[in-house]
## 1
Amino acid sequence: TIWTLRVRFLEERVLPHWAAFTIWNAGKQGRRLYRSLEAANRQKVVAFCDVDERKIKKGFYCYEDAQERPKPRVPILHFRAAQPPFIICVKLDLTGGAFEDNLRSLHLQEGRDFFHFS
């Protein structure tokens, strides 16, 4: 229920202002967010970004349960190659400050360039 309410808030308050966005985290939470979005908002997702070379080398995330044909394939990029705005699905204080340093290095403004979801 909490997850559903948070996604609804995101879709009502944040995503209407963005024509396209990137999900920061190609892992479990980022993919879950992507699958939870309404179809119109899923189409706004231009990429996932991450720091995990294994995920980046895979190159894309394919949403296998999608009704569309062909199945949506969303690119997975290194965070430096991705374009804002970002929906960030990374918990703070779990990486010894590495995530926070990466985010700070991009000189983004919260609310305009990114929204922290997790």
## 2
Amino acid sequence: MSWAELLLELAIIFLLALALPLVLRLERSLAAVRRDRAALESSAGNLTEATRLAEAASIRLRAAAEGGGRQLAERLAAAEPMRDDLRYLVERAEALADRLEALVRTARPLAQEAPPDPVPEAGRSQAERALLRALRAGR
């Protein structure tokens, strides 16, 4: 063997000795990457499952909201005629109350001047008795 071959082999041994710690560090890094890759793949699987569940829940929520909206619309449609009827009844009741109030005002002075009523209390209806009591209390 010549000196050149020996020198070349020593240079290769030296370079291999320098590369060995780098190779060991690279091997540890690759092992960590493999572990992280497995964790990442399982996380991706969990994320896919969570996404699927969220989509299913949003579909159920949308269906429930549409069903609730339909029920609300049906109830509103059924309540609208009742609202109109109640409005009509309130208007009539207000008009009757105004008329009754005017009659009571007109009757008060007459009730004070009028002689006692010949019809006994027992022969009157409950509404008549209540009206007479109210008129007498207003004197």
## 3
Amino acid sequence: MERRPRETSLRSRGRRGNAEARQRAVLDAALEVFLAKGFAAARLDDIAARAGVAKGTIYLYFRDKEHLFQALLREAVGPVITRVEGLLPSFAGSTGDLLHMIAELMDREILQTRRKDLLRLIIAEGPRFPWLSEFYWREVVSRGLAIIRAVGARAVARGEFASDALERFPQLLPAPMLVAVIWGALFDRFDKLDTRALLDAHVDILVRGLARRDS
């Protein structure tokens, strides 16, 4: 019997849905295994077992462990950077308000999620795997620094900042986020850090330090 077009379409969508579900399961399992064992010790066999798929299934979507980890980072952090990039063109408020908004997003989307654990893993494993640092630089860090430079230039152009320090040293803004990631891993059980308050305090100090004295 000839298969009807609608039946073929439904089956095709069903296969796509199953494929997407398997890929999702692999990415979720990869996150757990990488965070538990680190990049070097993680094995595709462990990821496949945790995802409930055959090891060969992973190769349908990812060339190797390196490309699987890259896909995990791109999916986890890429949308956050894109959201921050989208704030600048239409934001009409003060630079202080903009920086506080960015800080709030950094806290909510990174420090309060498992993305912070991925960042901690990159800090730990990056020196051993230069490609990992290079990938994270290209996909995340360079884009983030470009955003902060644009904010610094905007502040100077609007007469809000007397100094171009934020444009020259965009690392000033995310510095406390890195402190929070390291603190959380080592000392949070002794002295829990209020990360949102930390970032807000940092922004306040930064804005006051760079502001025009007559503003």
